[in-house]
Amino acid sequence: MTGLHTADQVRAAESQVLARTPEGALMQRAATGLATVCLRLAGRAVGLRVTLLVGAGDNGGDALWAGALLTRRGAAVTGLLLDPARAHPAGLAALRRAGGRVTGDPAAAGLHRADLVLDGITGTGGRGGLRPGAAEAVARAVAGPGLLVAVDLPSGVDADTGAVDGEAFPAQHTVTFGAVKPGLVVGEGRGFAGRVHLVDIGLELPAPTARQLTDADVAARLADPGAGDDKYSQGVVGVHAGSATYPGAGVLCTGAALRSRPGLVRYAGTAAEGVRAAWPEAIVTDGRPADAGRVQAWVVGPGAGTDDEARSVLAEVLATDLPVLVDADALTLLAASPELARGRSAPTVLTPHDREFTRFGWELGGDRIGAARTAAADLGVTVLLKGDATVVAGPDGTTFVNGTGTPWLATAGTGDVLSGVVGALLATGMDATEAAAVGAHLHGRAGQLAAAGGPLIASDVVRHLPAAVHLLRTAPHVPRARPPVIR
Ligand SMILES: NC(=O)C1=CN([C@@H]2O[C@H](COP(=O)(O)OP(=O)(O)OC[C@H]3O[C@@H](n4cnc5c(N)ncnc54)[C@H](OP(=O)(O)O)[C@@H]3O)[C@@H](O)[C@H]2O)[C@@H](O)CC1
Ligand SMILES: [K+]
User: Fold this and answer.
1) Does domain 2-212 fall into CATH 3.40.50.10260?
2) How does DSSP assign 456-471, residue by residue?
3) Domain YjeF C-terminal, which positions (predicted)?
């Protein structure tokens, strides 16, 4: 599990280490880690042409110290000082001592022929998008041939939210210190960070503000059936989705539930004929949820319409004491009557995309983690806010950021698949917030497998779910015992 820590958390942990280590020691650790990753990425040191973009804070100091180390290994390093009078004094002296050169002129910094560019403009102390001088240097770097490596954080990206207010450094790699910041994996920042390399600088960190599951974490939560299990003990999920005219959502959602956790899936709704034809394994009724038989969780909403019948079905399932996943059309209905979800005794999971989210009156700016948390606390539910990096927030503030998936998943019907996957996990009795995070991870991996051969359609994702489970199970370091529930 990767813990995500805010800039304030990292700064507080840094100050503890600073208080008990010699001056500059922490920055040396960071710079040594940075130079090591750079050498690995470049594959050589001697003759390597490196340009450092150096801001006026400690982020620039990291770049200067790493530049000094690279110079000593035979690299030709130029530091472009964006604010020469304020460049980190010790770092600047170190680079000069090692034989590196410095300039204040972007045109003379060798960006047109650099092999490697280190972005040390701003780190956790940055505010807003790049200022004009920094933006010009970044534009030259992007136009040049060098590998773009961000120091701690791509400059211009908000460390805590990933918001990019203006321009930012489009890194191919980010070497981050002490902890992964949320802004590297969520929101726009995710697209600017490239591959993230974490350098341990010996911080003692508090509980993370959010978490990202690994393949091994997810595999450990998908327990194999035991000898004593039967179809009921594996979890029975009920699905109300699709319509007689558009049965697709019912077919996809039911199929995804079957392929994620093949205990038992009961379908109730007007797409009954289509679902029966597609999935003989499901128990199907064209009646209402109450006619479906006993279930342990409900999925309600995909393609089910927003008429009075759909509204009364939503009210019926939310009146049960079972976990309920509310998606798509049912979210539109719930936004008009949120009191149906507030105060339920059993967990409720909402799976909105941005438009569905704002229908509830919740604001959605650049802080997707904050927005999902506010919404979850408002209604006392788990919110799975779909996006390039899906955010899952529970009513108690537990937060996950999903790290799997592919842009190919942005196609019709994949949301119906996600609902089926998470619904199946809810029916096993898994904690609702965890089920949403585990489901999002599994769905993303299945999407990646389905997209390997090119464009995917939603039923390809359903088909690849078993292979995705297998892939997760073969991930390294899968603990043998069932781990405790994440809090
Ligand atoms: N603490 C430690 O021991 C360790 C810290 N470490 C490192 O320190 C980093 C944090 O350093 P930091 O706090 O000095 O802030 P930093 O990110 O360099 O930025 C501040 C400077 O940027 C400027 N600036 C602001 N916004 C801007 C913009 N949009 N566009 C352009 N410029 C902008 C701002 O200017 P001002 O507003 O003052 O005019 C100020 O000059 C952290 O990320 C890690 O890399 C590691 O070495 C480990 C040990
Ligand atoms: K940076």
Assistant:
1) yes
2) --HHHHHHHHHHHHHH
3) 214-472
